[in-house]
Design a protein that fits this description.
Helix content is 52%, strand content 13%. It starts with a helix and ends in a 5-residue tail after the last strand. It is built from three helices and five strands, in the order αβββααββ. It is α+β, with helices and mostly antiparallel strands. The chain has one domain.
Length: 93
């Protein structure tokens, strides 16, 4: 389906069913690997932009933005195939 489209152009790595993100090749963390992962990332960026634009109080921006970031990181961590750890390229699989 669409995840095959992303792989066709080298934009993602294959992941097992039920996962949205793949391990990064270098460093710590994950990258979107399926359409659901890309949609989740786009919605996060959009929501942060709306918070920054709509809220007038810096404290409210910080609280809402921080809560949204923690929630997004938790979802990303749970939906990453292989988990998060420091990686040094293809030799560190």
């Amino acid at each position: 389906m669409m995840s095959g489209y992303f792989r066709q152009f080298g934009w993602s790595q294959p992941v097992r069913d039920g996962y949205w993100f793949a391990q990064k090749r270098y460093g710590f963390g994950a990258v979107p690997a399926t359409l659901a992962g890309w949609v989740a990332t786009a919605l996060y960026v959009l929501a942060i932009g709306l918070i920054v634009k709509a809220m007038h109080s810096d404290e409210v921006k910080l609280i809402l933005g921080g809560a949204l970031t923690v929630a997004f990181l938790a979802i990303t961590w749970l939906k990453t195939d292989g988990g998060w750890r420091w990686r040094w390229g293809s030799s560190d699989r």
